[in-house]
Design brief:
alpha+beta, globular, SH3 type barrels, 86 residues, 5 strands, 2 helices
């Protein structure tokens, strides 16, 4: 996955998906995964797999969100790696 395609989303509501999503947790949105006609996005959830969820459950952060928080580049890479399935 290239750096330009990585987007983080913040779960703001997990109603109906309590096992799969944790409120106030960052998740990785898969590139090109917006299903706008369905109002869904595909994120890697607690199972480590990418699934479609209603877009309104998340706040989509800007692509450069980690750099805006002024994390060092090495820390940014670790955060993104930790969000990807193994």
């Amino acid at each position: 996955m290239s750096k330009a395609t990585k987007h983080l989303v913040l779960c703001i509501d997990n109603e109906g998906y309590e096992v799969s999503l944790e409120t106030n947790k960052l998740y990785l949105m898969l590139p090109g995964a917006r299903e706008d006609h369905l109002d869904m996005i595909r994120v890697i959830d607690e199972s480590g797999e990418g699934y479609l969820y209603p877009k309104e459950l998340f706040a989509i952060l800007p692509a450069d969100a980690l750099s805006l928080l002024r994390f060092p580049t090495k820390t940014q890479r670790r955060i993104l790696k930790s969000l990807q399935p193994t």
